[in-house]
Design brief:
Blueprint: E1 2-9, E2 14-20, H1 22-25, E3 33-37, E4 43-52, E5 57-63, H2 67-73, E6 80-81, E7 83-88, E8 99-105, H3 109-121, E9 125-132, H4 141-145, E10 150-155, H5 163-175, E11 179-184, H6 186-198, E12 202-207
Parallel strand pairs: 8-9, 8-11, 9-10, 11-12
Antiparallel strand pairs: 1-2, 1-6, 2-5, 3-4, 3-7, 4-5
Helix pairs in contact: 5-6
Length: 208
């Protein structure tokens, strides 16, 4: 069993949970995901937003968009899930590239936190861009800013005339970006992906 240590609403339907999961936390790297088993039959796949090996905890962000995710977000501090299995997947490639760009859209903002932490620790200058449809859907701004040299918040309900394409093109040119890390739904950040590919920037992307 894994206990909920902390619960926080980030938006109206997006919840941050900190779970007691020492075995998972000891192995987690940016890019990993876990299976959260609520019971014997219900399982949810979630990217790891953060892990603290010292405290033995992992941070997960869950958006209540379906029956199972709503069931989990209805839990409270002190409640337990049957099991957190992982970490799964492949960790991102972390090295010192001098200047890197990290773009997270919607749910992709969650795993971006651990990504920028590891990139900053590796000695990079980290330029971060958070992308959502509206300001009300934005979260983790202060957390990600802590590990970023520059943080830009982009929302489609308040964009400038050049849009996300113009923003990314400017950042890549000004900051001499050597590698880009993109996380989120294609509908939100495809423009960023297209620009970095067009400008022949090395990219590691997790898009859906």
């Amino acid at each position: 069993m894994n206990k909920i240590i902390e619960k926080e609403f980030l938006t109206d339907n997006t919840v941050k949970f900190v779970f007691d999961a020492a075995e998972v936390a000891s192995k987690c790297k940016a890019g990993h995901f876990v299976f959260v088993h609520l019971d014997e039959k219900d399982r949810l796949t979630l990217s790891v937003a953060d892990a603290d090996e010292r405290l033995g905890t992992i941070t997960l962000v869950i958006e209540a968009v379906g029956e199972l995710s709503s069931k989990i977000t209805g839990l409270n501090e002190g409640d337990e899930v049957l099991n957190i299995e992982g970490p799964k997947g492949k960790a991102i490639d972390v090295a010192n590239y001098n200047s890197v760009l990290a773009v997270g859209g919607a749910a992709g903002i969650a795993p971006m936190l651990m990504t920028v932490k590891e990139l900053k620790k590796a000695g990079n200058k980290v330029i971060s861009v958070l992308v959502t449809k509206s300001e009300e859907q934005m979260f983790f701004e202060s957390d990600i800013k802590e590990f970023s040299d520059d943080l830009i918040v982009f929302t489609y309900d308040n964009q400038d005339e050049n849009g996300l394409e113009g923003l990314i093109k400017t950042l890549v040119a000004q900051e001499n970006i050597q590698k880009a890390y993109l996380m989120g739904p294609k509908i939100l950040i495809k423009a960023a992906h297209d620009i970095v590919k067009e400008m022949s920037i090395a990219v590691q992307a997790t898009l859906w």
